Amino acid sequence: MAYRAPVGDFRFLMDHVVSFGDVTNTDRFAESTPDMVDAILTEAAKMCEEIIAPLNRAGDLHPAKLENGVVRTSPGFAEGYRAIADGGWIGMSASTDVGGMGLPMTLTTAVNDMMSSSCLSLQLNPLMSQGQIEALEHHASDVIKDLYVPKMISGEWCGTMNLTEPQAGSDVGALRTKAEPNDDGSFAISGQKIYITWGDNDFTENVCHLVLARLPDGVPGTKGISLFMVPKFIPDADGNLGKRNNLKVVSLEHKLGLHGSPTAVMEYDGATGWLVGPEHGGMAAMFTMMNNARLGVGVQGIGIAEAAYQHALAYAQDRTQGKAGGSGTIIEHADVRRMLASMKADTYAARAISLMNAVAIDMTTATGDAGWKARAAFLTPITKAFGTDVGMEVSSTGVQVHGGMGFIEETGAAQFSRDVRVTAIYEGTNGIQAMDLVARKLMDGGEAAFRLLEEIEQGAEAAKTTHPELAEAVWQSAESLREATEWLVEQSDLNQRFAGAVPYLRAFARVLGGHVHLASAMAGDASRVKLATFYIKRLLPEHIGLLAHVREGADDLLAITPEDLVA
């Protein structure tokens, strides 16, 4: 099945649902005219459909390999990467001051969505560079920015993120990698890092590693961590590459999916690195990159959901089985229709939420307004967790639509499910996203959440004249979510919040999904009304059970002892 980029959905969402007009009306992004947006979406779609998508199967069947210390990438990946770099897609949202295009993150999000659908293994590489570019723009010295950022924007060099160690996963503060000062102002970095996405390749001149390490006077925990730029080859002041640094790829992980993306174990043995940001301020700098990546990873899930849906739809339109009337193909069966409608409705809802998140980021960039910043922060864990959950669920349903053939690798349906599975784990597990949502993101007393809920209710009020039944359902869901949010804010014991954190995040995403589908029904054609009706009547009611879970608190959960679980 040939992938077709959902350009129509992006245009519709930007024009009618996610308030992208607010972004283009600012001085910062005034040059993002409708014609420019249309040209960008069209060109990106063409690249993804014609160049990137054909690489997806090759990456799965012919994984990246480590041969004599050299990473050999999958067939065609070098050419695919060059198309991405030459098109300027890596530095879309980077500042024009450092050679970027200065475009809204909303457009970058749409393009990353398309690239994720096309070949997630390859898309991971520019995503890592995009996050590193943003971290360097915000935290690095002018010398480091001027040396590294233009090279990454051009695609000559690429970036990675090095946090995890064998004993330090989600607990980053347990890391042991050391940084010893050198006489020339650089540092000697020593330690081992694991799960390093695109830790090396054979198509960029240099690989630039951002590495978390602890200085000799660094206190235990995250407050004693610093961030360092540690390149594969050490450049001179003009960007000319010199000697090989004292780092190497020890091995590549054998993974469930994403076989085309080399996930490395990295060894640093007194490697030369340069401080990024202040001493002991590494986590603040790294979180800039991680927050960028969390939006990006949520979009990866959405992109895979889109590809899996298209794959399943094509199969259902072609496969003849049973006697359901009509064409005789399985799409005529009610349950297959249910599965396909669920896949499409959830993918659309998750995509709209990701674009809402990106718009909030753009408005923060353009205005510096604290309200937009709070909204972006609140939507980030929802985008990441819901987007990747939808990716897993839709790709799993895609296997089911294929029936027995979905379990056969030749159809390609299983690859989507295998590739997307890790997105719910890396860049902060979805459980951690939910805990962040009910703890840190509610430290404002729920103000950011209540602002969103107020907008949802206002949208429902406006829709009552044309779609009264759908509007009432969305309004009531927002009220229920408001009550649950008020209950959470009242809980001083964080365990009471954490026990229901995952269902709360899911419920919030469900209600936001109802909101965007209702807005789409208001502005769209009959097909969008039908899809909104399906979502609001059949999927939105899930929030009721989820919120019941939230308000049960932690007491009965924590009463279940470890012994009870093994009894």
From TrEMBL:
Presence of keyword tRNA-binding: no
Known catalytic reactions: 3-(methylsulfanyl)propanoyl-CoA + oxidized [electron-transfer flavoprotein] + H(+) = 3-(methylsulfanyl)acryloyl-CoA + reduced [electron-transfer flavoprotein]
Enzyme kind, highest EC tier: oxidoreductase
Domain Acyl-CoA oxidase/dehydrogenase middle stretches: 161-269
Domain Acetyl-CoA dehydrogenase-like C-terminal: 453-560
Pfam families referenced in this protein's UniProt entry, alphabetically: Acyl-CoA_dh_1, Acyl-CoA_dh_C, Acyl-CoA_dh_M, Acyl-CoA_dh_N
Tagged with keyword Flavoprotein: yes
EC number: 1.3.99.41
Entry cofactors: FAD
SUPFAM superfamilies for this protein: Acyl-CoA dehydrogenase C-terminal domain-like, Acyl-CoA dehydrogenase NM domain-like
Keywords of this entry: FAD, Flavoprotein, Oxidoreductase
Acyl-CoA dehydrogenase/oxidase C-terminal domain boundaries: 281-440
Acyl-CoA dehydrogenase/oxidase N-terminal domain location: 78-156
Signal peptide: none
Record GO terms (molecular function): flavin adenine dinucleotide binding; oxidoreductase activity, acting on the CH-CH group of donors
Summary of the function given for this chain in its UniProt record: Involved in the assimilation of dimethylsulphoniopropionate (DMSP), an important compound in the fixation of carbon in marine phytoplankton, by mediating the conversion of 3-(methylthio)propanoyl-CoA (MMPA-CoA) to 3-(methylthio)acryloyl-CoA (MTA-CoA).
Family, similarity comment: Belongs to the acyl-CoA dehydrogenase family.
Record-given protein name: 3-methylmercaptopropionyl-CoA dehydrogenase
Taxonomic lineage of the native organism: Bacteria, Pseudomonadati, Pseudomonadota, Alphaproteobacteria, Rhodobacterales
